[in-house]
């Protein structure tokens, strides 16, 4: 399998990729930006692409959401949840007192805001394309006052020393990545469906109407986020993640009603959930059985309709 990923080598994205045996066994190609990863899969240069989509502290990675929603027809194939540990890394011989500039990916800098204010209050924070790119920049620079916030893989790859470990402000930090590709994976029983809803009319209760389609069917929403549609100022669409697979009748019925009555919908995929199974699996199965029984009952009634004499 040819796998594209958000690089360069040594990023957390590559760590997430390497945690999946089938992806780790494939041919890996790094790209400098998330849209480039997705474009490589679109062109057929890769069979799948791994990109970050959400961090538990800083929230969604907007470039991933927007590219999937507006610029691609690829679908999410799986989630990969990765525990994230951020380290302050320097060239050999540099001490904490020497550091005047800290370089990293914007999401990583934001996750260490408190630590930096306490330990390096006078240091300049500068954005890089990725945590690995920050490590590479520090390693190549001749300056002795620079540090990178990155993972241990990047530090090892570029010959940096770890000056301080776990500098993130919140312990047990995790980032979610997704594999994108073509087609819809088979249901596993522990799945998630992602869609984008575009309101047909901006009117009171329009969002509530969308949400009620899920509530009426006992489908749990795991994410609801608004993003600009890029069609006009103040015009928003809604990213929705719900428990279940499009092959589940109860989920399919909710999507059917959304498209028919409430909104224009873009399907982003039904795919295996990352992390451990949850109680929602039992709830979804119960709701699915109830919906199937109700459908059977309605069909039995319709079967009694007499033909026109």
Describe this structure in words.
A hairpin with a 7-residue loop joins strand 13 and strand 14. Helix 9 runs antiparallel to helix 10. The chain is 34% helix and 30% strand. The termini are far apart. Strands 1, 2, 3, 4, 5 and 11 form a six-stranded mixed sheet that branches. The chain has a five-stranded mixed sheet with strand order 8-7-9-6-10. It contains eleven helices and 15 strands. The protein has 309 residues and is an alpha/beta fold. The protein is elongated, with a radius of gyration of 23 Å. It folds into three domains: 93 residues, D-Maltodextrin-Binding Protein, domain 2 (3-Layer(aba) Sandwich), CATH 3.40.190; 81 residues, D-Maltodextrin-Binding Protein, domain 2; 109 residues, ACT domain (Alpha-Beta Plaits).
Indicate the topology.
Elements: E1 2-6, H1 12-18, H2 21-24, E2 27-31, H3 34-43, E3 48-55, E4 59-60, H4 62-70, E5 75-83, E6 87-90, E7 101-104, H5 106-111, H6 113-119, E8 124-127, H7 131-140, E9 146-150, H8 152-157, E10 161-164, E11 174-181, E12 191-199, H9 206-215, E13 221-228, E14 236-243, H10 249-262, E15 263-272, H11 280-302
Parallel strand pairs: 1-2, 1-3, 7-8, 7-9
Antiparallel strand pairs: 3-4, 3-11, 5-11, 6-9, 6-10, 12-14, 12-15, 13-14
